[in-house]
Amino acid sequence: MKITAVRARVHEWKGKTVPPTGNFCSNAIDLVYDNGAGRGLTRADTMHTFRFHAWTVVEVETDAGIVGYGNVALAPHIAKAIVDQYLTPLVLGQDPWDYEYLNQRMYRATHAWGRKGVGMAAISAVDIALWDILGKSVNKPVFKLLGGRTKEKIPCYYSKLYRLENLKDMQDEAQTFLDQGFRAFKMRFGYGPAHGQQGVVENLKSVEAVREVIGYDNDLMLECYMGWNLEYAKRILPKLERYQPRWLEEPVIADDIDGYAELNQLTSIPISGGEHEFSLYGFKQLLDKKAVSVVQYDTNRVGGITMAHKINALCEAYSVPVIPHAGQMHNYHLTMSSVNCPMSEYFPMFDVEVGNELFYYIFEGEPVAENGFVQLDDDKPGLGLTLKTEFLDQFNIVE
Predict the structure, then answer these.
(1) 290: alpha, beta or left? (left if phi > 0; alpha if psi -120 to 50)
(2) What's the whole-model pTM score?
(3) Alpha-carbon distance 101 to 137, whole Å?
(4) What is the rounded CA–CA span in Å between residue 66 and residue 47?
(5) Residues 6+ apart with CB under 8 A from 206
(6) Could you say which of 11, 309, 325, 333 is catalytic?
(7) For residue 20, with 0-12 CB atoms within 10 Å meaning exposed, 13-18 middle and 19 or more buried, which class applies?
(8) What CATH homologous superfamily does 3-139 map to?
(9) What is the H or E stretch that residue 6 is in?
(10) Which alpha helices (H) appear in the chain, and where do they start and end?
(11) Is residue 32 a contact partner of residue 192, using CB atoms and an 8 Å limit?
(12) Model confidence over 213-249: pLDDT tens digits?
């Protein structure tokens, strides 16, 4: 079996979107003031630079007629250019079963400029498509090729609790999904250092509001999305201990590994991260420094399934659990096949807001949670995804 074609298409959303609200989610740009010049950043919507309303789908075709699907959400137009100009020539004519060779070939050939960020995301999309091909070629789901089923079904946590101006709305949302059987929830902070002590108070009020609904017999996770700095995090972490969070996610920017390490030793609250780490070596650095107690890579960022499988093994050797970012099938297969992956993140299908939602508008086959669990089908080959046609008229497709 040989690879005969690679196609990368950008799906640009032109349908309905949820308008942004202030303090929706703290993020790394919050610390930079808006001087009114240029475009793409306002104090009322700092999440603008982290919102993506386009997605790149990569199709890899073989001479056996099998087509595998991969995807990349980061900088989709740039990712498409990387796939078209740099990666396609490296894999055409190759055997997809030589996935380790092909992954190394793509990684090393682009290393001078692609070893972090969108370069690795583009490699991930091609690699994910290769694994989809492998599963389809032997009529097995991908998780069966990675070690098989390690759990009856995958526990998942509800992850769409963004900060809302009316805390009662957050409470109602939490109650809705508590009633649907979820026993773990992740909420976002809306305030950071730029908001002063008033922001600290608002952050604590939001945690208390959600705890009031879900109680202390359910897990609560807290996300900062890189919106704090070390000094601010050190001030607020002791105040958060009484709420018994399962973890605090990405408190500082991803490059501040020493900051993560200091915070991970500061209180009883475990620090999580890795959503914005991109390589096996980067995760080894996090683990060596004891910077995180939970690893949260995304398979479509770290080099695909080939590299994510290695990261799972690495983290297991350090006794650090892996709970991949964002749910989605490329992550679910890795979670199902590893005892070191205890649960998954879960977003319901929802109106397009940040952009994570686009995955569910593009692909058919994503499992729907029941009573706080998702299930993978033993008889569905490959990733188990097909391209959805229902919303095709809501996208502009860039060939």
Answers:
(1) left
(2) 0.96
(3) 19
(4) 39
(5) 163, 167, 170, 187, 189, 190
(6) 325
(7) middle
(8) Enolase-like, N-terminal domain (3.30.390.10)
(9) strand 3-13
(10) 76-82, 88-91, 99-109, 111-114, 118-138, 142-145, 167-179, 196-214, 230-240, 257-266, 280-288, 305-317, 329-336, 358-362
(11) no
(12) 999 999 999 999 999 999 999 999 999 999 999 999 9
Q: Which residues contact 124 (CB under 8 A, 6 or more apart)?
A: 70, 72, 299, 300, 301, 302, 303, 304, 307
Rg, C-alpha atoms of the chain: 20
The DSSP line for 83-99 is IIIIIHHHHTT--TT-H
User: Distances in Å between the alpha carbon of 115 and those of 109, 119, 175, 332?
Assistant: 10, 6, 42, 24
Single-letter residue type at 343: M
Three-state secondary structure readout of 193-240: HHHHHHHHHHHHHHHHHHHHHHCCCCEEEEECCCCCCHHHHHHHHHHH
CA pair distance 64, 159, nearest whole angstrom: 39
Single out the residue of 115, 91, 184, 97 nearest to residue 374, CA to CA. Answer: 184
Q: Report the C-alpha gap between 99 and 97 in whole angstroms.
A: 5
Task: Break the chain into its structural domains and give their ranges.
Answer: 3-139, 144-389
CA angle 31–36–37, rounded 5-degree value: 105
pLDDT for 33 equals 79
Q: What is the C-alpha to C-alpha distance for residues 91 and 103, in angstroms, rounded to an integer? A: 9
Residue 49: per-residue pLDDT: 62
Q: Which token pair is 279?
A: 């390589």
| Measured distance CA(296)–CA(294) in Å, rounded | 7
Range 144-389 classified under CATH 3.20.20.120 = yes
Q: How far apart are CA 115 and CA 278, in angstroms?
A: 7
Cα–chain center distance at 319 = 21
> Which residues of the chain register pLDDT less than 50?
none
Is 309 assigned a catalytic role? no
55: phi then psi, degrees, rounded to nearest 5: -150, 140
Question: 352: helix, coil or strand?
Answer: strand
DSSP 3-state helix, strand, coil percentages of the chain (rounded to 5)? 40, 20, 40
Antiparallel, parallel or unpaired: β 154-161 and 184-188: parallel
pLDDT in tens, 144-165: 999 999 999 999 999 999 999 8
User: In whole angstroms, what is the distance from residue 322 CA to residue 294 CA?
Assistant: 6
